[in-house]
Amino acid sequence: MNNIIECKNLSYSYHDGDRETPILVNLNLEVSMGESVAILGQSGCGKSTLLNILGGIDKPSYGIVKIDGVDLSAISEEKLTKIRSERLGYVYQFHHLLKDFSAIENTAMPLLIKGTNRGAAIEEAKNILSTIGLENRLNHLPSELSGGERQRVAIARAIINKPSCVLADEPTGNLDAKNALSTLEMLINLNQAQNSSLVIVTHDEKIAQKMSTVLVLEDGSIK
Which domains occur in the chain, in start order? Predict the structure, then answer.
């Protein structure tokens, strides 16, 4: 089975003057196409750092990260941006929606940035939002939506490009238990429908149990 993500001997350290603080140490990770992976770890263990490196947002101190077989360290910034926009989707604990744009406009934004015709982008956004029960909230601003609704819009935005993999950083951490469960199940179902991979970093074992593979990040490495 082909891997969407491969990490080999990945290391990352923070530097404060002459002081070096290792966060990730010789970490190895493979995620297959269509696989759902939970990476468990306590707060401060480096989960978000790992996700940022997988997404090409941060660069490792050492080691190799490949997305769809492409070594992120060996390509231009322009090609990296293209890979991030076309092959990866992102969901964070806080939705990061654009406050002056409606739910449908926020969802359509990745397609609009890519150059998709506005009408086609808005129609695709409408279809996705209707699928997840937000057909009556299309023109609402983020401030007019509940926390669970805002996070659903964020998920719709993450998957509208049909990415090869969705990276999610504590995607339900800001929701109550009921909304957290329904939002997580929606995210899993959407990914299965698109046959894309899903990587969630979390400290919540209940979330991890919903995934096909559970890994633990401890002492800078995957256990």
Answer: 3-222 (3.40.50.300)
